[in-house]
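lol ok so funny story. i was supposed to be doing the assay writeup but got distracted and ended up predicting the structure for this chain instead. priorities right. anyway since i did it might as well share w the group, maybe its usefull for someone
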Amino acid sequence: MPGGRKGLLMSAIKTTTEIFEEAATREGSQRFVLSLFVAGLTPRSLKAIENAKELCEQYLKGRYELEIIDVYQQPELAREAQVIAAPTLVKHLPLPLQRFIGDLSDPEPILIRLAVKNES
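and the output, tada:
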């Protein structure tokens, strides 16, 4: 079998770029690709994770991908994303790229900047 098991495995693994491109080109729905950078399992990090999941489920249900990244476990990803504080939520798609720093306790400004909710 050409390429063998390793070749088959490698073809099944999607790169982050491929995931972003697929999300960007899906018709009929605006997909949100988000990364939440946290610093360990501190109370502030846990609150940010809870708030991010709640926000996504309530306002972006079925239209989002949320990746949780611990900067202690994967510091290279934080460097690549130019994250200098944790917790930070990074919106990769739809463009433009945006960053939200803090535990996401106040969803209103986030929803407005995500264009999910109009200013009142």
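The first strand starts at residue 32 and ends at 38. Residues 31-113 form a domain with the Glutaredoxin fold (CATH 3.40.30.10).
back to the writeup now i swear
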